[in-house]
Structure formats: C-alpha cells, structure tokens
Design brief:
The protein is mostly helical. It contains 5 helices and no strands.
Length: 149
Amino acid sequence: MPFPELKGLLTDIGTEELGHLEMVGAIVHQLTRKLSDEQIKQDGFAPYFVDHTAGVYPTAASGFPWSAASMAVKGDPLADLTEDLAAEQKARVTYDNILRLSDDPDVNDVIKFLREREIVHFQRFGEAIQNLRERLNRNNIYCNNPAFD
C-alpha cells in the first residue's frame, strides 16, 4: 500500500483475521476433542480423524487444505483492496451457511460475532478504496500502480 493509513488498516484487519482463525480453530477443537469412536465413524469425521486426530488442521468444508496459494495478491493497491472486499463477502457467506446448519447456540454466538466483523472489514476496505482513488485522482496517476510505478 502506498500510503501509511492504508498500511495500518491492512495490519489491523490482518491481525484480527488471524484471531478469527484462532477462534474457529478453538470451536472445532471443542466440538471434536471428546468424540467417541462411534461418533467419529457415524458423523463422517473418520477421514479427517485418521490424518489429524482431533487436531486443528485448516481446511475448507470440502476437505481442501488451506494454502497461501488461496490468497490473491497482484501488488496493485486497487486490485488488492478489491480482492480484500471479495474475501470479506466470501467469509460472510461462509458464516451465513454455518448458521444455517448449526443448532449450537454457543457456536452460533461466536459465528455471528465473526460475521459482523467481516461486514465491518468490508466497510473499511471500501473506505480504503475510496481514499486511494481520491489520492490517485488528485495526483492524476490513477492509471498507474502507485506501489510500483
């Protein structure tokens, strides 16, 4: 990011997102740590259990493991902030889907909190894009990548 306040925003949100990962991991751990062998088999948890026991191993619901390759970065502030907007919306939809499936009020409370934070992050990224556009337009360099050109 070419401007200090945008760097600060990304640092703040990035730090909070790591906290989200920790919270989701804690939920998964709490829900799986005392499963019986029969529950592991019946509930479709066996393939995960064989590979990871009840350890937290970040994967998509489909089983695809998390990878840094899933983070789309172009090195252009406008493109990257737009990607951040999309990521926040994708996270919100994931939380919406979890809430559709979960009947655990303790889990739901945490997921609702995390969903709210994704909405706030989306708003902050939108403000950052507006700030960036105004500054780039002011300098008449909107057509260039200010992080590189």
